[in-house]
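Entry 14. Two folds queued back to back today. First construct below, sequence then structure tokens.
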Amino acid sequence: MVAKTFKGLENVLADELRQLGAENVEPGNRMVSFTGDLAMLYRANIGCRTALRILKPIYKFYAQDADELYNAVKDFAWDEYLSSSQTFSIDATVFSEKFRHSRFVTYRVKDAIADYFTEKYGKRPSIRLNNPDLVFDVHISDNEVTLSLDSSGESLHKRGYREAQTEAPINEVLAAGIILLTGWRGETDFVDPMCGSGTFLIEAALIAANINPGIFRSSFAFERWPDFDQELFDEIYNDDSKERPFEHKIYGSDISPKAIDIALRNIKSAAVGKYVEVKTQPLQSIEHAPHEGSGGILVTNPPYGERISVDDMEALYRSLGEKLKNVFKGYKAWVIGYNTDLLDAIGLKPSLKFPLFNGALDCELREYVIFEGTYAEFRKEGRSVKNEEFKGERNPVYKRRDFVPTVDANSEERKPRYNKWRREDDGERKERRDDDRRGRQPRFRTEGKPKNALEEKLRKPYHERRKDEEDRRRFKSPGGERMTHDGQDEQQRQPVVHNEARTSRMVRFKQPRLAADKEQPIIHGRRNSWRRNDLPVKEKGGDDNNNE
């Protein structure tokens, strides 16, 4: 199985899957592969905080072009998963030079599935974009195609507790991933001084109490699968044995009363009100940290100046730095931002910088360790700013997974062709020809004498055909007709004789029409006109050839 996530959260998701009981867990680029049974599939959807989707691969094959993709998809036994009375949708992800447009891939796969049912049953399943019975995921890497069943349906970041949102809320999966990257699991107080709609607050409460994030969702796509086990799902869904008490508090504030009202509604919907306190308060008016001297963690997502902006963004970030230094002593602060100049305006040296994506924005997560006194005194106490529990990797190197096609790898129908060379049985390397492709006959014979002039023409290389065309345009017979290829030498061909009558018919020169003042001729059809005054004036009685 495959769990998809955001770039930078792969290791966090891998740890989550291991804790849920997954086996053979291998992080990849924006995904984590793992193995498990049906119960593991259900637990991954309900319990993973940093997963966007959980996919179950059902069919793998090689495809070099759209026709091979269509034929391979059509060959699959789709009636094992889908009936003609059901609805389905397709989500395609493409990383290939052979397939450049994901929507085109979606259409070809849809056509193949529809034609399979039409030819076999006389009717086909319908496409539905919203809440379909089955969701298929198509992933293409170079010529490797993987078809999967999407067990989640809607993205797992849609927890189900959000009643309303502010203008630019942070994604729930990203918020949970940032909190898990910090290493915080509820050991101290949690503060967000610019909480907005309360996403960080709610995700922190779910992590601290170890509440499964998927219990708020109304449905999952796997509930419509033919092998859905209702009893097993109910057992996993209602299991709260791993929840734990939370002894500390989560505090949030924001300058906007509307944002605080939205946050309160979302907190109530998530049933974590006993862990969270919020109030309307500008950042500049914060004078005391909760339980001063006991330390804690601060995580916030200040405005970037893109969708939400204030009059003076730099002053806002300077105020944040001042409050961190003077109010939140003993805290570890984590700030995610988009503009590095604004992050530098905080005025504190970060102990860690980690790249993350917030939607399409290339952001940076920074950690600040706040302490009293100088850094030398801080070090003398045996303390360090280094975060040993940080799970992120700056430049991870992922092992490429072996691609094992569903059909026989030696089958000529699905055998991959990686390059233009092949090795014959005698060991000689020969160039692969276009007519070696499966099911495709050469357009013209390549051996023997050509049957006609067209076949002779198309047997020639492109540059020779181009040269012949240019010769036809340059040379004509004395009668004005095109000469045919009759084996004549090029010197015997005669160039076209100039024909004055023919030229006069083709080119009709019009004298310029003078304007009323007879100063500026008007020449139609030309961008740049000329003035009579600009012409050289010939002196009377003079001779151009005798000018001194």
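Second construct, same run, same settings:
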Amino acid sequence: MAKKGKASLGASDGALPLVAIVGRPNVGKSTLFNRLTGSRRSIVGDEPGITRDRIYGEYEWAGRRFRVVDTGGIVPDDEALLPAEIFRQARVALEEAAALVLVVDARTELARPDYDLARLLQRSGKPVFLAVNKVETGALVSEAENFRKLGFADVFAVSSEHGQGIGELLDAISERVSESAGQRVSESAGRHPGSQNRDLGHPEIGGSADREKKKIRTHGEYEQRETSIAIIGRPNVGKSTLLNALTGTTRAIVSPIAGTTRDAVDEVVEFEGAQLRFVDTAGIRRKGKTRLMAEKLSVVMARKHLEAADVALVVIDATEGVTASDATIGGYAHESGRSVILVVNKWDAVTTGRGDRKPPADRDIWEKQLRRTLKYLDYAPVIFLSALEAAENESSGHAAKSVARLLRMVVHVAKERRKRVSTGEMNRFLERIDFQRAPVPMSKRVKILYMTQAAVAPPTFVLFTDRAVKLHFAFERFLENQIRKTFGFEGTPIWFKVRARNAPRDQGSGIRGQRMRS
């Protein structure tokens, strides 16, 4: 159990042996990771250095489950900021792993960094498997033998892109990693639905497991094991720093360079009995601002992780104010039906740590300006904090309280998202509401005969009316405000669907309620 006000890392995956994939930049590590996990979790491209943070996943082989971690390209002697941080993240993976897979490119000559990295791995004392990648033709198979110069006995010619030779590599890993370190699939069945994958064919996005999760999240038939929270925002607003502050780790690489995060980085936190999976996403920017293919893919993946989450933390830079891009990103979360918390980061830079001799910012005035720009997110709570202060100084009372307040708000909003109101309660609620007060023209008024909550996450209500018309936006807003006043639903959008009396189901007017209001 986590102590009150503190987060502890969830250890639910700790029983599984970890296989670390390491190597120089652009040798195909992420392609191998995606092949094993049956996903497109890691961004793949021709540009070197795309992967930067540690990316975790799972695979199943020979009846056993394993964890696997993809690491950034390692250049041991490069002291520049980003390469040094990538190396630091990779060393964490090396220390955690039970087995190491060194990936090299069969089409390139051995270089000094390969020998340096080989010596580093040999000193670890852990089993190392050399995967000579990109062996797509028979002529390259003989070339793979040249890589035995690195000093490894276990050498495998593989093609991560086409799946060739992967089975032999996994057989060797399974034999060398002790049975006690692994976990039988039969023992872990049900713990991580949909993560089994023995099919090494071309990975596809989604599947039956994803549809199962969507069904569970929307209709609430089963108890949800964890809450997924996507941290979204513009580049360089402090998303990675916020993840580190929430988890109490240095899980994500942080630098002043905008666009440092590319792959989504996730970490599980247990807080006051709730299991929370935070996902740090790449900064979302306008299409015209993304030039490299890796940047374009990272924005696409950020949107996908948002749509898979339960709650979105929309991070806003207090030093820059609320921008049009912030409004656009908030709109993505709102339209996708995610619950939303607005996080105003770097608050210390405009208050206690201000160095421009201007008076400190007023919280109430700042929030009014925020609400004025993001009118359609009037249901979203606002948290002011300094993620950097919290990450660097956990003992700081004010910073720690801000992080704890945010964690409690996440738990609260997640519960509100899955709240269900009985039909009886809804109809008694309707009897108490004076709809004559709704500012709606007479020609647009409808009579609600009764209403029921059809789904949760987000709360969705079906209105049975006397005629088939689209709800006037003022009527919809009035009804939504009355529902919130009575039942809460803080932090979550509310959707409405209208069905006329005696109308066939396919003639009902479906409205994804609470459209963005200007």
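Quick look at the second one. The mean pLDDT is 80. The radius of gyration is 26 Å.
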